[in-house]
Amino acid sequence: MGSQQFPQSRPPNPIPSAPFPGIKAVSSADTFAKVPNVPEGLFSYGGSTTWAPIRGEVDPSIETVWPKFKLRYTQPTSGEPGSGTGIKMLLEDQLAFSHSSRPLKDKEYQQAEQRGFKLKQIPVAIDGIAIAVHPDLNVPGLTVAQIKDIYTGKLTNWNQVGGPDFKITPYSRPREAGGTVDFFVENVLEKEDFASSVQFLATTTQALREVATDRGGIYYASAPEAVPQCTVKTLPVGRKPGDLVPPYKEPFVPLSKCPGQRNQLNAKAFQNGDYPITRQLFVIVKQNGQNDERAGEAYANLLLTDQGQNLIEKTGFVRIR
Fold this sequence. Notes:
Blueprint: E1 41-47, H1 52-65, E2 69-73, H2 83-91, E3 97-100, H3 106-114, E4 118-133, E5 142-143, H4 144-151, E6 169-172, H5 179-187, E7 199-200, H6 204-213, E8 217-222, H7 223-226, E9 233-234, E10 237-238, E11 244-245, H8 267-272, E12 278-287, H9 291-303, H10 306-314, E13 318-319
Parallel strand pairs: 1-2, 1-3, 5-10, 6-7, 6-8
Antiparallel strand pairs: 3-12, 4-8, 4-9, 4-12, 4-13, 10-11
């Protein structure tokens, strides 16, 4: 069918100590117009809420160049949208391709094979997970181990991590909410359960609103959602106490200057692996030899052009090439 093939290997550990290895540019084109094998038709896709800014920026630009390649974001008929929901809809033939902010799971590969096709994941961007707290909270930062201990209930007061004598209130979206929570549980909590003290909220907007008024609150989110906020601040994070790396470009912009000036992402630290909680964003493609496969591969190829990577960067995520 003339479309390119991609490696089927599992991704590297998503919390790297060095730059992401083994990622080769799938698209060698520099603009959308030069991408081959873009199919015609209306293609439904869905999945990760983390992807929302990319969708908003990239899709209209793609349709300007390829007006017959029509893209429609599709909400699930039940439950909240998210990476896992999108992959489930893809498996059930409700979508042509999907967006994910976490790698595919073994059971998802297996479910696809039971249905007579394969899934593959194509990384197109890098994201960091930022830790948001109340602007008045005075702590130098947290290690990944301390974040784990907060969310599993071993640390309960900010004075245990060099802060004031305040009870820690951890916030999260529910486990079924999507890829960001899945990624956090797998890679930061190392598959341990959330403590009973964790308060669950449906959306990042709600959680950030709570942290903005709760002096002991803490929340984790995709860096582009948290770093530029005017009502919360994000903390430096490290693998060791003496090695804290901010998710924002230094110097920190005081929130009193917001929204005229906002904190910007520390893209270099996300890209080279210095910031310890990073992940890849994936296009999930259904390898069924049909138009769905062509659509998913074409979409990934478009995002991997220079034009696509520039637009991804504009939305606050980090280019992968």
